[in-house]
């Protein structure tokens, strides 16, 4: 209990005032946990507030159009979270009459909910004694207890979950779990942790052995793939353009983009015109074309880097798929496209 007592004392003195900490309602806590997956609180908090304002209940979220949900999520990344969020809301609203599962095992049945999220909701809402293990928890435990088992290995995942469960305050798991995550976020930070004021600095093996920068250990990532995107930004009669919706299991499924021609390197205008994919999209000889950005925009995702250029295609013929430029910002788009539109569109369209 020494560990949990020290942690609790630290938490009572240092915890941040966050809206989802002032409720035991599963909808708000579930929403916050999905938003905060792979997202810092500073970035996620405005999105949480937007979603609560737009969809105060799980029924409101369930009844919202998918494009509207994706649009509200725009800029937060990992869009499968938004799609899973919407699907789970519809399931809870229609199949469970708006009542969330009330234990860890039941919560795991919700789409997009894994061990971490189920543990968080179960302990925060229902005081179920299940330990939460996220990136912050991995970091704290690996440093304090000097564990160098890779945190993204099967062995490491089991080892850290077991340790967290052993340390868990079974009488008040909600406070313990929130305290441990908060401690990793603002005290035992990835870079420049506050070791001098740490309540565990007399016990921390990483500090004792000068291994703070080495821990936690993580297996090397998959090799980053380079991709070259050529977006065709059609300007039809000066007031329309073309958007297409991405489908399949790749990145940004369900979001909208300009017609895309992917190449195996940065290419010239002539090389682009000679590609079959380009010719399928631009089958009219009466068009003019110019490159918007000579220097590609490099958009970095977890396992791939996108080298992106935007090509402006001026054409007079109308297209059935065309949308008015003034309506373009209503569509959910990847942040890469959103940044371009903010720069490209006239102010009166924003």
Automatic annotation (TrEMBL):
Residues of the HhH-GPD domain: 35-186
The protein's enzyme class: hydrolase
UniProt GO molecular function: 4 iron, 4 sulfur cluster binding; 8-oxo-7,8-dihydroguanine DNA N-glycosylase activity; adenine/guanine mispair binding; metal ion binding; oxidized purine DNA binding; purine-specific mismatch base pair DNA N-glycosylase activity
One GO BP: base-excision repair
UniProt cofactor note: Binds 1 [4Fe-4S] cluster.
The protein's Enzyme Commission number: 3.2.2.31
Pfam families per UniProt: HHH, HhH-GPD, NUDIX_4
InterPro entries according to UniProt: A/G_AdeGlyc_MutY, DNA_glycosylase, Endonuclease3_FeS-loop_motif, Endouclease-III_FeS-bd_BS, HhH-GPD_domain, HhH_base_excis_C, HhH_motif, MIG/MutY
Requisite cofactors: [4Fe-4S] cluster
Domain of life, per lineage: Bacteria
Record's keyword annotation contains DNA-binding: no
Keywords in alphabetical order: 4Fe-4S, DNA damage, DNA repair, Glycosidase, Hydrolase, Iron, Iron-sulfur, Metal-binding
Catalysed reactions, as listed in the record: Hydrolyzes free adenine bases from 7,8-dihydro-8-oxoguanine:adenine mismatched double-stranded DNA, leaving an apurinic site
The family this protein is said to belong to: Belongs to the Nth/MutY family.
Alphabetized PANTHER family for the sequence: ADENINE DNA GLYCOSYLASE
Role, per record: Adenine glycosylase active on G-A mispairs. MutY also corrects error-prone DNA synthesis past GO lesions which are due to the oxidatively damaged form of guanine: 7,8-dihydro-8-oxoguanine (8-oxo-dGTP).
Protein name from the UniProt record: Adenine DNA glycosylase
Organism of origin: Christiangramia lutea
Lineage: Bacteria, Pseudomonadati, Bacteroidota, Flavobacteriia, Flavobacteriales
Gene name, Swiss-Prot/TrEMBL: mutY
